[in-house]
Amino acid sequence: MAYPPEMKITLVERPDLDETFVDSLEAFAFNNNLVRFDMCCVRLDPGNPPAPLTGRRYPVGRVVMPLDAAIELFNKLNHLFSALEKTGIIRREVTGSFSAPPGTTSH
Fold first, then answer.
1. How far apart are CA 47 and CA 62, in angstroms?
2. Nearest-angstrom CA–CA distance, 87 and 101
3. Cα–Cα distance between 36 and 67 in angstroms, integer?
4. Are 103 and 91 in contact (CB under 8 A)?
5. What SS3 string covers 31-76?
6. pLDDT, tens digit (0-9, with 9 covering 90-100), for 44-64
7. ∠ CA 86-97-23 to the nearest 5 degrees?
8. SS3 of 82, please?
């Protein structure tokens, strides 16, 4: 929801709020002016060499937000990624997407 610019909104921190680790995103959708996506975490199955590794992707959270909030998220992530690109932490590919330089990992 877009709030009037003259409205004062104060962020109230919640130290009791749990953090959720996410290593992948799934199921992006747009419906009724809402953006919805699932945040997931891959968990590896027990290994049995020489069989190839296998894993399962589990949803760990679902975010639903109005389009205005999704645009705000996009703009803030774009600003963050531009700063990370300037410092060399990530790089922009020819396609316009971002990637980590070779030899680095995100987790």
1. 29
2. 12
3. 10
4. no
5. ECCEEEEEEEEEEECCCCCCCCCCEEEEEEEEEEEEHHHHHHHHHH
6. 999 888 989 999 999 999 999
7. 95
8. helix
